[in-house]
Each structure stands twice: as structure tokens, then as C-alpha cells.
């Protein structure tokens, strides 16, 4: 008996249980069954066999492969020589590809078929107010040039610098045409700047009004004041947004009230004012209406409802302040007093008569009283003389007539205080109407 197992027959998989492979048929007589107990090949062994590992080939056949060998790990040669060779190949390919591109570019840039022959090769669409020569001035240096050398981004930016251009699109149409699409700004109001009338769009951009556009009846919107060229564009945009909201609120009803406005003042964002024509024919005049900063439609409806009554009572009405809920402040045109009705005239006349009586009563207090005549009538034995009655006749007959005469003919010359009369009729051309 051997005390030590022979190494020649020792199993390499010591400590592991090897299970014989199952077969569907019993083994034939005389067949070698050693492969049934062989250890399955590992994944690394299978990869090596699939990749054609030369070391495995050498060990299996006992031959040594001689010559240059490349081992690729992740697509990169592992040896220095292989890496150098791969770099040379890649560099050569890049140089060749670049040369081809350069040659193609040079050929295209010098191709006469790609040259913009004239301005007729530039197509412009979408312009209504801007003329074709105005837009072609941007492409003046591009005529007789290769179409591939035209910087489309620069041309787009130059077009959008024109005041009337809101958005521009520039495209190449091979072989030698350029297409330009223009979106023009839409004016929403006239703008008054001193003695000049222009146009303004919803973003506050000021637009020139050409003579052709001035004679065109296409524009029918109010004149806006309070928007000037020296304002920042952000301020103009904010005021035009307020203006647009004002028009939208007025037109929220059944009627388009914005067509009735003659002028809109945006000088004070807290108080939007509008001139509204009143009357027809030669009697037509504008009434300034204060709308405040909200509730525009309700205030206009209240103004329109009361306007016939006001025009009858105040023919020279110039302004109506509708900002207050319970009253309306009416203002007359300069140099025109508020007309006074017959009832008001009677009331004022009565107030003046009462005031005059008070003034005369005050003056009589300064006259000599009857008690001042006591020294002349003190002796009881003597008969009264005519001189004793002279002071009594003077205050009762002569003085009242003299005092009443200035009050009747020259009321301004009397130093008496003025009687209280409502300021809406005399001192100030303004009336307050309760709501």
C-alpha cells in the first residue's frame, strides 16, 4: 500500500466534486469515458479559443509562432510599435480628409454658379411700409459675391435695426439666391412730439410717418401724448401696455368705444385722460375725461349717460373728472363762466338782499342814538325848539338814502364783506355734480 498518493494521478481539482455528464444512451462498449469526468472549460479558456490565442495554439501544438504580433485591448494596440503604426494611419487619414474638404471648399468658393449676380437674386417678402430699396441697402456689398460668403446672422441683425422691422429671416437658396422674409411692426396709435406726428407700436417703438402713410386712411386710432423719444424704451413699453389695457377695457362691451377717442394722455399712469368728441357739425368740441387707473368701462358709461344733461346745463363744458364714486367734477372752458339758471339767480339775489340788510343794520349802529338827545330835552319848562329835532331827522331820512345808494348802484365800492355764493357759479368756472 502506498502511503503517499502519486502526483502523476492526483486530480487538479482537489476538494471539488466532479459530476459525470449525463448522456441519453449508455456508453458503448470499449468507449473511453474519461471525458465524461473532465472539468468544464472556463470562460477565459473559451474566450482564448474563440479569439485564437496564439499562446494556447502554441501550447496545444507544441510550436512557437514567430513574427510581429499585435494584441488589441479595447481597440488600442498594446505594443509600442502597434500604437505608432495606428497613429500614423489615423493621422494620414485626417490629413487626407482635410485636404479633400479644403479642395471642395475652394472649388465651391470659386464656382461662378454660386455668385449673386445682381439685386434681382435677392427675394424680399412681407414688406408693406418699407420699400425694396430700403431693404436692399443692407445687401449692397453682397452683390457679385459668392453666396457662401454672406453672413446671414449679420444681415438679419442689420435688418432688425430698421425701426419698422420687428423680425427678419434670411435664407440661402442655392445656387445663387437669397430669400428675405420681413415681419413689420404694427402701429397702434399716433404719437405727438411737439409739432410732429408719428406712430408708435405696442412695445413703445417710435415709427416715422411717411407722407404716403399720412394720406392713407388705413390708420384710425387715437393720438397718444406722454410718450417721447427721450424716454427709455422700457418706460415707453410700460405706458403703451397701459394704453392697450385701457382700450381693451373700453372695448369689452358691445360697442367699440376706442373708435370714439380723439386723444389719450399717458403722462400720469395713475390718471389716464382722454379727449372725447361731443356734438356734431360746427358745435363739435372735445371734452377731457379723467378715467383714473381702473374701472374704465363703468366710468365711461356713467359719463355717456350724464353727458346730454350736462351739455344742456353747461354748454361750455370742457372737462369731467370721473374718478370719484359719489360726485363728478365738471370744469368749464377758460374765459367762460358757469351758466346760472333762473332759480339760481333768484337764490343769489335773495342772498344778496339779506346781506345788504345786514350791512345797513350794522351801519345804523354807528349813528347817533336817540338817547344822545337827552341834554336838549332835559328842561321840562321850555318848549322844544326846531334845533332839538334836527339830529333825529338826520339819521332817519338822510342817512338811509345815502347808505342805500352805493349798495344799489356800486356794490363793489362798499367795504362790506361779500355774501356767500356757491363757487361753481361765480368765482371759479367749475361745478360739482352729485352722483
The poorly predicted ranges are: 358-428
Which oligomeric form is depicted?
single chain
Q: Kindly report the spatial arrangement of strands forming the biggest sheet.
A: 8-7-6-9-10-11-12-13-14-15
Q: Count the helices. How many? A: 11
Gross geometry: elongated
Beta-strand level of the residues, as a percent range?
15-25%
Whole-number mean pLDDT: 74
Q: Assign the CATH architecture of the domain at 187-332.
A: 3-Layer(aba) Sandwich
CATH structural class of the domain at 187-332: Alpha Beta
User: Major sheet: size, sense and barrel closure?
Assistant: 10 strands, mixed
How much helix is in the residues?
A: 25-40%
- CATH H-level superfamily of the domain at 187-332: Cell division protein FtsQ/DivIB
Helix/strand class: alpha/beta
Walk me through what this model shows.
It holds the Pfam family POTRA_1. It is found in: Cell inner membrane; Membrane. This is Cell division protein FtsQ. The chain crosses the membrane at residues 80-104. Belongs to the FtsQ/DivIB family. FtsQ subfamily. The chain has 11 helices and 15 strands. With 435 residues, it is α/β, with parallel strands linked by helices. Among the domains are: 114-184, Roll (Ubiquitin-like (UB roll)); 187-332, Cell division protein FtsQ/DivIB (Rossmann fold), CATH 3.40.50.11690; 342-376 and 389-434, no CATH class. The chain has a 10-stranded mixed beta sheet with strand order 8-7-6-9-10-11-12-13-14-15, with helices on one face. A 3-stranded mixed beta sheet has the order 3-5-4. It has a two-stranded antiparallel ribbon with strand order 1-2. Strand 13 (317-321) and strand 14 (327-332) form a beta hairpin. Helix 9 packs antiparallel against helix 11 (386-409). The model is unreliable at 358-428 (pLDDT under 50).
